[in-house]
Design the sequence.
């Protein structure tokens, strides 16, 4: 007769630890939310959607409008120079209000919410018609989303958390 004895105490401790980490995903999701926010900031900085597509450039009318807002007295006198100064202006960064509004709103054990509460954010994210009579066509310039790099970082964060590491480190 052969007797095999298995001491399963270490396995039970490991399983209990795994269950505890899976039940408390908050640290990992908090770190993932910061990755998503960072990806949004990068989208604004690079004028690219999180999937890497370049945003449409500003239309001439938008350049004129921006130039007028930022150079009201010298606009007419130095129109060509003023317009040239704003010709390469980045979309969605006129005041920085939209970019600065992106934040982590909540993190629970099951979800993380990253976004903005500004009402005009949706028209810029998805595009559409706006203005009086909806006569202005706004092109989509997505700033929220999951880049391949962010996806990889988040997968790594979750993997480390479940394996026993710290969710964000």
Sequence:
């Amino acid at each position: 007769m052969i007797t095999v004895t298995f001491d399963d105490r270490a396995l039970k401790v490991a399983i209990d630890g795994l269950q505890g980490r899976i039940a408390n995903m908050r640290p990992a999701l908090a770190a993932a939310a910061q990755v998503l926010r960072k990806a949004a900031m990068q989208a604004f900085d690079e004028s690219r959607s999180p999937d890497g597509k370049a945003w449409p450039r500003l239309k001439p009318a938008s350049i004129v409008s921006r130039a007028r807002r930022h150079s009201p007295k010298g606009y007419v006198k130095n129109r060509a120079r003023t317009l040239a100064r704003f010709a390469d202006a980045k979309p969605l960064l006129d005041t920085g209000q939209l970019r600065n509004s992106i934040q982590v709103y909540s993190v629970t054990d099951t979800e993380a919410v990253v976004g903005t509460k500004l009402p005009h954010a949706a028209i810029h994210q998805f595009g559409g018609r706006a203005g009086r009579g909806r006569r202005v066509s706004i092109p989509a310039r997505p700033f929220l989303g999951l880049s391949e790099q962010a996806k990889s970082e988040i997968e790594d964060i979750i993997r480390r958390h479940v394996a026993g590491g710290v969710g964000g480190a």
